[in-house]
Write a structure and sequence with these properties.
It contains 14 helices and 14 strands. The protein is α+β, with helices and mostly antiparallel strands. The longest helix is centred in the N-terminal third of the chain and has 45 residues, at about 55-100.
Length: about 450
């Protein structure tokens, strides 16, 4: 089952698993491969134990024959594959060009894939052939130590450079694009993000992609996380800022079309390899590299991290919320998820104003705000966050699909948003209690068995 889950949306098993509450939050199906790895390791250990037991000699002979048969099939298949690849290479290149041709690194990836197919069909078979030959020999000798060493070598050589290493300068040298950001960008709560992250790796530092910006004090609108929040993903997609499968100039056009939502998220600085054309996007400069040009743009209409919207409209579900958000000015109208009365209050602050963050930490945000209206904090709404308005607990609404919102009555107010997940304490205490109970039962059984053996 873990193998089927690892294949993700390509099998119905993953969709069935996602129907279980909680499992729909996982982003990477490949993470389920740890179950497969654990099962294979357990089977290998059991097989080695049987091999060294009384029935091991017959198993060793059978295993050696299978290994030799696999070796012969491997060599014959490799020879046939090499001949076949020569014939179908133009067709393979054409298919890959259709899928990868418009990527900046498309030609290089196609060459790497085709060269990899050539290598795997010829010299790449040498290592598994030697491995199978050694396996057959060790099985005949019933050498447990030799088999363990063989598996260790196989894993070590296979995974040695699985994640290619990069030069330390990638993260230790300040990107030249930092100097092109507005003054004080590193100290502010304005967000800096990347349009189209599918670029040559040599550009990652200047684009401050893959969370590199955290080293230089910038705040991205997206971070690498194994959890998937559908509402937040939909908001990023509407702004053209999701990772997604789209890339190239199309990604820039999506950002231009979704700029109001990007501005809602507080994205003031945009780094990209593509030219942008929008009256509220001002180019601050560019960095020329051999692999391409990295441009820095400032979104002059970006909203602050917190503001007060004088109007409110309610949406019954995420789809309705996204449709409503695209139809309004997010600085003037907050879209709250749920059921309530739509309405507007007289604006008492300029557009995008009305709120000041007085303290900001990862688990606590303190603000002062002027009502009436909806205080919108453009951080992700997540279970465990609670709000206090003037020292009294207040409802924390899901605003603008994935953000935090608090309805304000008229007048000046102080607000505190804190992360206090009660469910974590409950879960922790429950697991602790069950673990303690299970340990007690095991100790009792151990003593009972010991006394009976005496």
């Amino acid at each position: 089952m873990s193998l089927l889950w690892t294949l993700g949306r390509y099998t119905p098993a993953y969709d069935l698993l996602r129907a279980v509450p909680g499992f729909d939050l996982f982003r990477f199906p490949a993470r389920f491969s740890w179950l497969l790895t654990l099962a294979v390791a357990a089977l290998a250990a059991g097989g080695l134990d049987r091999l060294m037991g009384e029935e091991g000699e017959a198993l060793a002979r059978r295993g050696a024959r299978l290994a030799l048969s696999a070796l012969i099939l491997l060599v014959l298949g490799g020879l046939l594959g090499a001949v076949a690849l020569q014939a179908v290479e133009p067709m393979v290149r054409g298919a890959l060009m259709g899928a990868l041709g418009d990527r900046p690194d498309g030609p290089a990836r196609i060459d790497a894939l085709v060269n990899g197919m050539r290598f795997n069909g010829t010299w790449g078979l040498l290592a598994p052939a030697l491995c199978l030959g050694a396996l057959a020999l060790l099985l005949r000798q019933r050498s447990a130590a030799g088999l363990v060493v063989l598996v260790g070598l196989d894993l070590g050589l296979t995974l040695y450079d699985y994640n290619p290493r990069t030069a330390p300068a990638l993260v230790t040298t300040s990107p030249a694009t930092v100097a092109l950001l507005p003054e004080g960008a590193a100290e502010s709560l304005d967000r800096t993000t990347v349009i189209d992250r599918v670029v040559p790796h040599a550009l990652d530092r200047e684009l401050m992609s893959a969370s590199i910006g955290l080293l230089w004090g910038t705040h991205d609108v997206i971070t690498l996380s194994p959890l998937r929040l559908p509402g937040h993903e939909a908001l990023l997609s509407a702004a053209g800022l999701d990772v997604g499968l789209d890339h190239g100039p199309m990604k820039a056009r999506q950002l231009e079309a979704g700029l109001p939502i990007a501005e809602l998220l507080g994205v003031r600085n945009l780094l990209t390899t593509h030219p942008l054309n929008h009256p509220r996007l001002v180019e601050r400069g560019a960095v020329e590299l051999a692999e391409g040009t990295v441009r820095v743009f400032e979104a002059t209409g970006a909203l602050p991290r917190a503001f007060v919207a004088p109007c409110v409209t309610w949406a019954p579900d995420e789809d309705a919320a996204l449709a409503a958000l695209k139809a309004v000015d997010p600085a003037q109208v907050a879209v709250l998820l749920g059921v309530g009365d739509d309405g507007c209050e007289p604006a008492v602050s300029p557009r995008g104003g009305g709120a000041t963050i007085t303290r900001y930490t990862p688990d606590r945000v303190e603000l002062s705000a002027q009502g009436p209206g909806v205080l919108v904090l453009t951080d992700t709404h997540y279970p465990g966050w609670v709000a206090e308005l003037d020292g009294v607990a207040a409802p924390l609404h899901r605003a603008d699909l994935s953000l935090r919102g608090v309805i304000l009555p008229p007048g000046a107010h102080t607000l505190t948003l804190s992360y206090r997940p009660a469910w974590a304490w409950t879960l922790g205490l429950g697991l602790g209690a069950w673990s303690g109970l299970g340990l007690g039962v095991l100790l009792w059984l151990s003593r009972a068995v010991t006394s009976m053996s005496r």
